[in-house]
Amino acid sequence: MNDFQKELCQNLSKYCWDTIEPHMEHDDAEGKFRMEFFKGLGDYGVAGVTLPEEYGGAGLSYIDYCYVLEEISKVSVPYAVTVSVSSMVQSILNEYGSKSQKEKFLLPLTSGEEIGAFALSESHSGSDAAALKTTARKVEGGYLLNGTKMWITSGGIAKTYIVMARTGGEGAKGVSAFIVRDGDKGFSFGKAEKKMGWKTSPTRELIFENCFVADENLLLGEGKGFTVAMGGLDRGRVAIAAIGVGCAQRALDEAMKYSLSRQQFKQSIFDFQGLQFMLADMALEVESSRLLVHSAASSIDHSKPNSKLCSMAKLKATDTAMKVTTDAVQVLGGVGYTAEYPVERFMRDAKVLQIVEGTNQIQRVVIARHLKKEYEHHA
Ligand code: CAA
């Protein structure tokens, strides 16, 4: 970490611990999202970390962004996810949007005034994203969207949605990406999901009933929607991985603190070698995940995302988050299972990191496909 990154993380960490942390236990129990916390993160300049300054972003690197997400997720995985999904929407607009689309939609997102959301999944098309059924029928001046999107992070609190819908035949080539705004006629919200974790981040169904989207809100062109979605997800997966590292780091911090202070059999429980080995393995997994995440982030900073590395980072860091948070609960024992300590919350928040933005089984599919291509090429 360089001096700039250290200062950035220290200031951000102070904001998160002073402002967000005191409310997390209560808000997790109530399922309450607070827009003022998100705006506060925006005031720190972290709602659009990697976006160019001309569009209100901080113009920082993807590695800087990973440190930022790590810091937020040490206090709240759900707020880090809200930032990361909104940032994925921004990176999609920046990469694939026209100049006028960028000028129109980016500023409120980079400032943290508004939140962005990404709508790909449907009830029958989760992992098989190219099988989506929402349609976009061409009419004069635009398209009419019909269908339902499921499990949409920030559904209902976001203002700008990137929505994938079918303009052509079956499969990936028939998919197009649209920019839809909360309040557009024919666009409404369905049920809010009740979840195991991520309780302060709303997850909602989106319903489109003859929702008119103007031509100017089509991204990149008809039939390019799957490329838009996959390109966005490459970046998004690294962000989810960075959140996994932050989540695991917090669990390790809590487990270390507790094991040093808790006395049993007239010694601290840390002094038992069984626990030392467990904690050493936890620290090893956190650090190796962080290195892989930075390697994937560096591929984004230096050229285009390396999809194989992005999937590896997501797979490794989120499996680590699940393992390390589970072990942290074990280290704390009985109290670890109660809401008196935060480790059970981090364990619940870790689980879905292995599922969102492509399950960890899908990450293996992506890795294996790249391996095949590389080895066939060499053969
Ligand atoms: N970048 C750019 N284009 C890409 C790409 C990438 N990383 N990956 C694939 N494409 C392109 C391909 O080049 C191909 O185009 P051509 O035919 O012109 O070459 C096209 O997309 C189709 O690719 P595939 O044949 O590989 O498509 P597939 O149907 O076999 O699916 C998959 C591939 C990797 C399994 C994909 O469906 C996938 O990633 N599934 C998981 C879905 C997912 O991640 N959902 C996340 C939901 S969003 C979410 O969770 C966010 C949130 O709210 C927290």
Structure description:
The protein has three domains: 112 residues, Acyl-CoA dehydrogenase/oxidase, N-terminal domain (Butyryl-Coa Dehydrogenase, subunit A, domain 1), CATH 1.10.540; 107 residues, Butyryl-CoA Dehydrogenase, subunit A, domain 2, CATH 2.40.110; 147 residues, Butyryl-CoA Dehydrogenase, subunit A, domain 3, CATH 1.20.140.10. It is globular. The strands form three sheets. A four-stranded mixed sheet has the order 1-4-5-8. A four-stranded antiparallel sheet has the order 2-3-7-6, with helices on one face. Helices cover 54% and strands 16% of the residues. With 379 residues, it is of the alpha+beta class. Bound molecules: acetoacetyl-coenzyme A. The site of acetoacetyl-coenzyme A has 22 residues, from helix 6 and helix 10.
Looking at CATH, the homologous superfamily of the largest domain is Butyryl-CoA Dehydrogenase, subunit A, domain 3
CATH architecture classification name of the largest domain: Up-down Bundle
CATH topology of the largest domain: Butyryl-CoA Dehydrogenase, subunit A, domain 3
H-E order: HHHHHEEEEEEEEHEEHHHH
What is the terminal separation in angstroms?
A: 40 Å
**Tertiary shape:** globular
CATH C-level name of the largest domain: Mainly Alpha
Task: Identify the strand order in the major beta sheet.
Answer: 1-4-5-8
Broad structural category? alpha+beta
Count of alpha/pi helices: 10
- Helical residues, percent: 40-55%
Number of domains: 3
Q: What kind of sheet is the major sheet? A: 4 strands, mixed
- In round numbers, the mean pLDDT is 97
Bound molecules: acetoacetyl-coenzyme A
Low-confidence stretches: none
Strand content: 15-25%
Q: Rg, please? A: 21 Å
Q: How many β-strand runs?
A: 10
